[in-house]
Design goal:
mainly beta, 5-stranded antiparallel beta sheet, 2 helices, Immunoglobulin-like, Neuraminidase, 39 strands
Length: 442
């Protein structure tokens, strides 16, 4: 991750140098003189986090960066260039995990110089890549198992944690993959076929011993809900319920009841039979309400508190909110919450003033903020419980592949997201970049 971050910053140097004005580095400046003292006048900026670009001004630095050692908070910084009077360097990763003051120390040749002022270190989120890579110049992917360095993805789509915070990943139109962070490997659990042709979402039972993957089927007589178990290592399934055009299902996080949808008529259903009674029949569930226009794909995502669920409309570009009635133990009719039905675009704002473009999976933090993959805007949006929408990561409406800080990084149709609140880490299924990305606080 450090290597890829440094590569990104190095690739940006021409732009950075061009923006320095009168302080642009001058390659014609003098060489280091060991007989003369090294002096430091100042450095800028006086605050920042990892990869912050430091400019240190003084004299007798020389032009050989290999003879310059700069430490920030006791950790070595990358010295990118020097012209004799200006050193250009990068604040190292993980100087500290809290905000505070850090000492800077400089060595040029055999001379040590202690800088009088300190850097106010402010940690921040950074975007990097865990695994995946294009397999050719056409930016295509592939299904390849192996170590994080060897593994390749084709269409990473939907994510779910196991109890050890490894990730099960649906590859759209391909199958199910497993990302093991302890072994640092990626493996394939199954490929599509035999009735499982369009897997869409993953729902785990509370004990993580059973997984339900919904399958977007054409008819009510087709397999809609496949059950996989830990006993089979989640590699084989059996049909437990037929349904038509199901794009999402979820267990309520508190009472563990099971909900699913159909976009045939925007129905939302609750299963009334216990899991022990599978396979379920049509008598095992009831229709609660119809959420919106027919023929639009949507999914159901519960807040960890269980107080409400969001219905994320993928191809109508908005989010509805359904409150959970704790007396009846049912979701209530959904109401418009963020964005406007059918109105595509990009706009931060409150509730219906916001705009999305093919929103997909989201992840809740500990405060019920919802971090949403806004696929065709190529960014990650944040929605507060009151409906304030802001951009969290990525360059809106600009696709690409760049690691770095939140608003410098680029995605290409991010679809899936998972959030580990203990480590404060986001994982992103970056579909058209054929990669799994991570947004990690220093």
């Amino acid at each position: 991750m450090k290597r890829k971050l440094l590569i990104f910053v190095l690739s940006s140097l021409p732009l950075l140098y061009a923006g320095c004005g009168d302080e642009t580095l001058d390659a014609t400046a003098g060489q280091y003189d060991p007989g003369s003292p090294v002096t430091v006048e100042r450095f800028t900026p006086d605050s920042g986090g990892a990869a912050t670009q430091l400019m240190i001004y003084g004299s007798n630095f020389g032009t050989d960066a290999s003879k310059i050692l700069l430490t920030v908070g006791g950790k070595q910084a990358a010295v990118v260039g020097c012209n004799g009077t200006v050193i250009y360097a990068l604040v190292p990763l993980q100087v500290r995990r809290d905000t505070g003051w850090c000492d800077l120390a400089l060595r040029v040749g055999e001379q040590d110089v202690a800088l009088a002022n300190k850097l106010h270190y402010t940690p921040r989120y950074l975007v990097s890549t865990i695994a995946g890579e294009f397999v050719n110049d056409a930016r295509e992917g592939a299904i390849v198992d192996g170590t994080f360095e060897e593994a390749r993805f084709n269409e990473p789509y939907w994510m779910a944690f196991d109890p050890d915070k490894n990730i099960y990943l649906i590859e759209e139109n391909n199958g199910l993959r497993y990302i093991d962070f302890h072994a640092k490997t990626v493996s394939t659990k199954f490929r599509i076929g035999n009735g499982m042709n369009r897997p869409r979402t993953i729902a785990f039972t509370p004990g993580y011993d059973t997984m339900i993957i919904v399958n977007d089927a054409s008819e009510w007589t087709d397999m809609g809900h496949a059950m996989l178990t830990a006993a089979d290592n989640f590699t084989s399934w059996r049909n437990i319920l037929n349904s038509k055009q199901c794009n999402g299902s979820a267990f309520h996080p508190v009472d563990h009841s099971y909900y699913f949808n159909s976009y045939e008529a925007a129905q939302v259903f609750k299963v009334t039979a216990p899991l022990s009674a599978v396979p379920w029949s049509t008598a095992s569930y009831e229709e609660l309400f119809r959420a919106g226009d027919v023929r639009w794909e949507f999914n159901i995502q519960f807040a960890p508190s269980g107080d409400f669920a969001y219905l994320v409309s993928v191809n109508q570009h908005y989010i509805m909110k359904s409150m959970y009635n704790w007396d009846t133990h049912k979701l209530e009719r959904a109401t418009d919450f963020a964005g406007v039905k059918g109105a595509t675009g990009y706009m931060d704002g409150a509730n219906t003033s916001a705009r999305f473009n093919y929103p997909h999976q989201g992840a809740f933090d500990e405060d019920d903020n919802f971090y949403l993959c806004d696929a065709m805007n190529h960014c990650i949006r944040k929605i507060t419980p009151s409906g304030i929408v802001t951009t969290f990561a990525g360059r809106p409406q600009s696709y690409g592949y760049v690691d770095g800080d939140l608003r410098t990084a680029q995605f290409d149709r991010p679809q899936g997201i998972a959030y580990d609140k203990e480590s404060r880490v986001f994982y992103i299924a970056d579909q058209k970049n054929r990669r799994v990305r991570v947004i990690k606080f220093e």
